[in-house]
Specification:
This protein is α/β, with parallel strands linked by helices. The chain has 11 helices and 14 strands. Strands 1, 2, 3, 4, 5, 6, 11, 12 and 13 form a 9-stranded mixed β-sheet that branches. Strands 8-7-14 form a 3-stranded mixed β-sheet, with no helix packed on it. A two-stranded antiparallel ribbon has the order 9-10.
C-alpha cells in the first residue's frame, strides 16, 4: 500500500545558523514519501545563498516580506499539494522515525486534523520544552499550558505522559496537519502574525468536530526563542494581544461577559509586577495589548457554533494562576489527575 505524501515545510526568517545545524537531520528522515520545502519570510541574512550553495535541490518559496508565522505559512502552503503538511521550526532537531507514528495515527482516524510530537528541550535534553511539551492545554480563563510545562516550570521527562492523548492545542513548532482541513479552515488568522495562532486554529478545529492529538512516540528537540527570544517585549505584546483576541473571538457571550473583565484584572496585576521588577517594556506591552483589544477588536468570519470551554478536550476547569502560585501546583500531574 502506498504511503501518503508529506511535505515538511520550514518557515525561515534569518535562520541560516539553524538551517546549517538542523537541516541535515530533517533530510535524513526515514519516512519514504516526503520532501522538504523552505519558505523564506524575506530574510535579510545569508539563508538563501546558503541553501542555493549547499542544498540546491530543496524547493524554496520566497515571500516578498515578513508575514510572520501565520501569514508566511498561509502563503507557502498554497503552493503544495501533499495530503499532509509538517510545519517545522528551523530550530528543531528531529530524531529517526519521528514522522511515521503520527502519519500512521492520522491515517487510522480521519477526524484527526492536527498532531504534535513530544517536544523536549535541545539544551536540557531530558526535560520537556516550553513551546508544547507533550501536548497543549488551556485553563478556563484562556491561559495556555502543556502536559509537562506549566507557566515557567518544565518537567523532566520520565515517560509520565507517553500515552497518546487528545489535547486542546498542538505546538506550532512541529505541527502535523491534514491539508484538506487546513484549507477548509482557511489556515491561520493572519492578524495574529506570530504566537498563539496555532492555538486559535486548534480551537476552531474543535468547534467543527475535528480532533487535535499529541503523539509522544514521536520525539523532537526544540531550541526555542529563535526569532523572538524570551524576555522580548514584542513577544509579550503578541502573546497577550493574541490570547485576548482569541478569547474575544471564540468565548460564548455568557462566558465572555465575566471572563474578560477578570482577565483584565489579572493582566494588570502582571503589569504591576513588571513595574515593580523594573521590566518597564513588558508592562507597556501588556497595556498596549489591552489597548488593541479595546480599540481594534476582531470580527469572527467563520460560522462554527460557540460552545462553553468546559465541553472541549484539553481544558482545565480551574484557574491556572491560582493552582500554580497559590496552591503551589507546578506539575501537570498535580493539576490534572483525572486521566493519570
Amino acid at each position: 500500500m502506498e504511503i501518503p505524501a508529506v511535505a515538511i515545510v520550514i518557515l525561515n526568517y534569518n535562520g541560516k545558523k539553524f538551517l546549517e545545524q538542523f537541516l541535515p537531520a530533517v533530510l535524513a528522515s526515514t519516512y519514504k514519501n516526503c520532501r522538504v520545502v523552505v519558505a523564506d519570510n524575506a530574510s535579510t541574512d545569508d539563508s538563501l545563498n546558503f541553501l542555493n550553495n549547499h542544498y540546491p535541490d530543496i524547493q524554496q518559496i520566497k515571500l516578498e516580506e515578513n508575514f510572520g508565522y501565520a501569514g508566511g505559512y498561509n502563503r507557502a502552503l498554497q503552493h503544495l499539494d501533499e495530503p499532509y503538511f509538517i510545519l517545522l521550526n528551523s530550530d528543531i532537531e528531529v530524531t529517526p522515525g519521528w514522522i511515521e507514528p503520527i502519519i500512521e495515527m492520522m491515517e487510522a482516524d480521519k477526524t484527526i486534523a492536527a498532531c504534535q510530537p513530544k517536544l523536549r528541550s535541545y539544551t536540557q535534553r531530558s526535560y520537556f520544552e516550553y513551546a508544547g511539551a507533550c501536548g497543549g492545554w488551556m485553563d478556563t480563563l484562556g491561559y495556555p499550558f502543556a502536559r509537562g510545562r506549566i507557566m515557567e516550570t518544565c518537567e523532566e521527562d520520565h515517560g509520565q505522559y507517553d500515552d497518546t492523548q487528545e489535547v486542546f492545542w498542538a505546538s506550532g513548532a512541529a505541527l502535523f496537519f491534514r491539508r484538506e482541513i487546513f484549507l477548509q479552515m482557511k489556515g491561520f488568522n493572519e492578524q495574529f502574525f506570530a504566537h498563539m495562532e496555532e492555538i486559535e486554529l486548534c480551537w476552531r478545529l474543535h468547534l467543527y468536530g475535528y480532533r487535535v492529538m499529541s503523539c509522544p512516540a514521536s520525539v523532537v528537540y526544540h531550541v526555542g526563542g529563535g526569532t523572538l527570544p524570551k524576555g522580548n517585549s514584542r513577544k509579550v505584546y503578541l502573546n497577550f494581544r493574541n490570547n485576548l483576541w482569541m478569547l474575544s473571538l471564540h468565548l460564548p457571550p455568557r462566558e465572555k461577559i465575566w471572563k474578560m473583565p477578570l482577565r483584565f484584572l489579572l493582566d494588570m496585576a502582571f503589569a504591576l509586577k513588571c513595574l515593580l521588577s523594573g521590566h518597564f517594556g513588558d508592562m507597556k506591552a501588556v497595556f498596549q495589548a489591552w489597548w488593541t483589544i479595546i480599540f481594534r477588536p476582531l470580527s469572527r468570519g467563520d460560522k462554527a457554533p460557540r460552545t462553553t470551554l468546559k465541553k472541549l478536550p484539553g481544558i482545565y476547569s480551574g484557574v491556572l494562576l491560582w493552582a500554580y502560585y497559590i496552591q503551589g501546583k507546578k506539575y501537570f500531574t498535580k493539576i490534572w489527575k483525572k486521566n493519570l
